[in-house]
C-alpha cells in the first residue's frame, strides 16, 4: 500500500491504524514519560550540607500563589508504552533516530540542523521521511514491546 507524504497519511493494518499524527503523538508522550521519571543516581550529588533546613514563612521565602509543581511519577502503563515506542526507533537508521527523538523532546529545528550541519528544511524532510518509514514498517510488522531480557 502506498503512503502519501501528507501529515494525515494513514496505513490500515487489520485492527491497528497507524497515522503520522498518532506516531508523533506517541513519540512525544514517550519522551514526556521519560522526562517525568525520577531517576536517582543519574547525576553527581554535589556538596552536602550538614546544617538543618531553615523554616521560613511564605513571605520570607518569596513564594507567590503560582508554585511550580513537579508532575507525579508516570503510571506503569505509560512506562510500558514508552518502552514499546522506544523499540520503534530501532526500525530507523541512526540519523533518523536522532532526528525523530530530538523532535519528540521538543528540540528546535535550528538546533537539530546545527547538529547535522544541514539546513532546517533538509532536516525537516529527513524527519518527514523517517516518520513515513515508521508508518510503513509498523503497518507491515507491529513491534512488540522490548523485553528487558533482550537488553
Briefly characterize the structure.
The protein is 49% helix and 5% strand. With 151 residues, the chain is mainly α.
Topology at a glance:
Elements (H helix, E strand, L loop, with lengths): L9 E4 L2 E4 H17 L21 H4 L14 H13 L5 H11 L4 H8 L3 H21 L11
Antiparallel strand pairs: 1-2
Helix pairs in contact: 1-3, 1-4, 4-6, 5-6
Keywords:
151 residues, mainly alpha, 2 strands, 49% helix, disordered N terminus
Give a structural overview.
By secondary structure, the chain is mostly helical. It has helices spanning 20-36, 58-61, 76-88, 94-104, 109-116, 120-140; strands at 10-13, 16-19. The protein is built from six helices and two strands; from the N terminus they run ββαααααα. The two termini are 33 Å apart. A hairpin with a 2-residue loop joins strand 1 and strand 2.
Amino acid at each position: 500500500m502506498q503512503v502519501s507524504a501528507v501529515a494525515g497519511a494513514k496505513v490500515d493494518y487489520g485492527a491497528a491504524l497507524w497515522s503520522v499524527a498518532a506516531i508523533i503523538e506517541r513519540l512525544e508522550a514517550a519522551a514526556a514519560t521519560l522526562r517525568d521519571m525520577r531517576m536517582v543516581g543519574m547525576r553527581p550529588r554535589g556538596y552536602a550540607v550538614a546544617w538543618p533546613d531553615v523554616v521560613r514563612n511564605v513571605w520570607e521565602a518569596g513564594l507567590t500563589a503560582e508554585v511550580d509543581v513537579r508532575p507525579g511519577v508516570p503510571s506503569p502503563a505509560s512506562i510500558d508504552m514508552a518502552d514499546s515506542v522506544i523499540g520503534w526507533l530501532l526500525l530507523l537508521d541512526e540519523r533518523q533516530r536522532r532526528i525523530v527523538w530530538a523532535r519528540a523532546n521538543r528540540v528546535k529545528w535550528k538546533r537539530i540542523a546545527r547538529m547535522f550541519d544541514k539546513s532546517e528544511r533538509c532536516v525537516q524532510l529527513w524527519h518527514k521521511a523517517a516518520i513515513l518509514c515508521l508508518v510503513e514498517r509498523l503497518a507491515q510488522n507491529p513491534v512488540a514491546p522490548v523485553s528487558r531480557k533482550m537488553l
